[in-house]
């Protein structure tokens, strides 16, 4: 025997007001995604510039370590750009699929857009947790380093 809840036969309706909210959210998320892509492109150019100028920095700073640090910063910068590309892409997909869903009135398109929005927030939530843990770890390391130095200052 199956237990059916009242929600099993419930069908979600999207009102015109909800559609307008989605339309505005899609426009703003599209704007933010495009701005994000522009800044990611500029960041990638900066990262490649750091890689290319790494050897020039090494000779200007007097040794291989200067060039190495420029290359390390360039690689780090490119990794950050690659990591930031993922949520920007999810945001763009949410925007375009939501606009498409509202124009075509297709539930499948709206479902796909909501999937991208969920992925965007999941990525940002996990990333935020990682950053918080890293901050706490750095604070603990800093306090430990300060305590180990004791009165040597």
TrEMBL record:
Keywords: Membrane, Transmembrane, Transmembrane helix. The chain crosses the membrane at residues 28-52, 72-92, 123-147. It holds the Pfam family DUF5362. It comes from the Bacteria. This is DUF5362 domain-containing protein. It comes from Flavobacterium beibuense F44-8.
């Amino acid at each position: 025997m199956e237990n059916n809840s009242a929600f099993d036969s419930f069908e979600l309706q999207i009102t015109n007001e909800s559609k307008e909210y989605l339309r505005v959210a899609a426009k703003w998320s599209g704007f933010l995604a495009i701005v994000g892509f522009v800044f990611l492109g500029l960041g990638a150019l900066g990262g490649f510039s750091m890689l290319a100028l790494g050897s020039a920095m090494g000779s200007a700073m007097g040794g291989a370590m200067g060039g190495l640090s420029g290359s390390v910063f360039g690689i780090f910068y490119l990794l950050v750009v690659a990591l930031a590309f993922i949520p920007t892409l999810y945001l763009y997909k949410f925007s375009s699929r939501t606009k498409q869903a509202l124009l075509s009135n297709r539930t499948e398109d709206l479902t796909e857009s909501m999937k991208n929005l969920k992925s965007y927030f999941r990525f940002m939530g996990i990333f935020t947790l990682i950053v918080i843990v890293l901050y706490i770890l750095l604070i603990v390391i800093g306090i430990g380093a300060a305590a180990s130095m004791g009165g040597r200052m």
